[in-house]
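Incident log, support desk, overnight shift.

02:14 A customer reports that sequence design results differ from what the structure should imply. Their input is reproduced verbatim below. On-call engineer (initials T.W.) acknowledged and began investigating.
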């Protein structure tokens, strides 16, 4: 049994128990075993506690109440997250604040935004507990407000496949699941090779969605280029996260984004041109009530400039900046 299956099976076992006592004991026991057998730091230990103890408890509450309590958990995560962040990159908190300020926000707004990023991000962990309820209609009623999905549907009808260009915002994984549940085959493009381990939350998200819909796949950038073209040739959709630092090399291009000139990989545009597959920009942003607003942009012709996709995303992130985790690495994208 893989780690993914063990995590998912334990989650299901915890949430199906009849008493709170059962899954406190089960969860705490599992965390204790993990602590003894795995070399984990304080932040990773918090992740284990959340995954196996706190989240199953929240999952038994009415969703609106669980959502509010989960936001408190997100704020707590923000504060203890710096144990790891400062080891990996000293001063990351201030760097993120400066990235927001340089995008045109005040310092007080910037401090709120970089904290709320953590609050928003914890949403996908709680929503993973609801996997037994997931269907497209339930998602629309409870978690997702969908705008202009006809743009994606119309692009898919041409039979050339579609690159769904998006960013690390809100619960973009949930959008991938929603698209699959609406009958559109979709594969996420992941940066890690398939044989390498992923952290607990990422493994769990990928595994649980694969169990809900057989129309979800995964492509890994290491050795996955052939598979990527095959998916598009079959007329399917590829979800591509385009908001990552690319450095200055032959495969990078410069675009304007958040008052900065940044360097991004041009690979999604190159693949679009070679496969003759249109690009549909998509962004998911947090809404005030539980859930997210999802915007699908107009299809972009194959081979067009990546600026169109980034301009679309910025227009929505300006209204909901706390939805984008990229504030923590935007300075690495600057030219």
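02:41 Re-run completed on a clean worker. Output:
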């Amino acid at each position: 049994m893989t780690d993914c299956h063990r995590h998912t099976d334990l989650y299901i076992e915890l949430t199906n128990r009849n008493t709170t006592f059962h899954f406190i004991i089960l969860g705490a026991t599992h965390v204790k075993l993990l602590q003894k057998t795995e070399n984990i730091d304080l932040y990773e230990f918090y992740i284990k506690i959340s995954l196996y103890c706190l989240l199953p408890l929240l999952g038994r509450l009415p969703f609106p109440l669980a959502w509010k309590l989960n936001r408190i958990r997100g704020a707590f995560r923000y504060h203890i997250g710096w144990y790891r962040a400062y080891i990996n990159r000293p001063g990351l908190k201030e760097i993120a604040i400066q990235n927001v300020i340089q995008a045109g926000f005040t310092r007080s707004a910037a401090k709120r935004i970089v904290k709320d990023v953590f609050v928003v991000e914890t949403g996908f962990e709680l929503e993973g507990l609801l996997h037994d309820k997931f269907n497209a209609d339930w998602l629309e009623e409870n978690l997702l407000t969908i705008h202009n999905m006809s743009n994606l549907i119309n692009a898919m009808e041409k039979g050339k496949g579609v690159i769904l260009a998006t960013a690390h915002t809100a619960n973009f994984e949930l959008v991938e699941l929603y698209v699959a549940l609406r009958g559109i085959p979709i594969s996420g493009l992941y940066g890690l090779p398939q044989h390498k381990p992923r952290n607990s939350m990422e493994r769990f998200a990928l595994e649980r969605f694969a169990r809900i819909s057989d129309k979800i796949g995964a492509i890994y950038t290491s050795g996955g280029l052939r598979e990527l073209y095959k998916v598009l040739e079959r007329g399917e959709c590829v979800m591509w996260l385009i908001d990552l630092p690319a450095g200055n090399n032959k495969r990078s291009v410069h675009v304007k984004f958040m008052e900065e000139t940044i360097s991004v990989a041009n690979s999604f545009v190159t693949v679009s041109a070679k496969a003759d597959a249109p690009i549909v920009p998509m962004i998911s942003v947090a809404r005030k009530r539980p859930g997210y607003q999802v915007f699908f942009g107009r299809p972009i012709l194959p081979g067009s400039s990546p600026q169109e996709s980034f301009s679309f995303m910025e227009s929505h992130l300006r209204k909901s900046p706390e939805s984008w985790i990229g504030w923590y690495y935007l300075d690495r994208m600057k030219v």
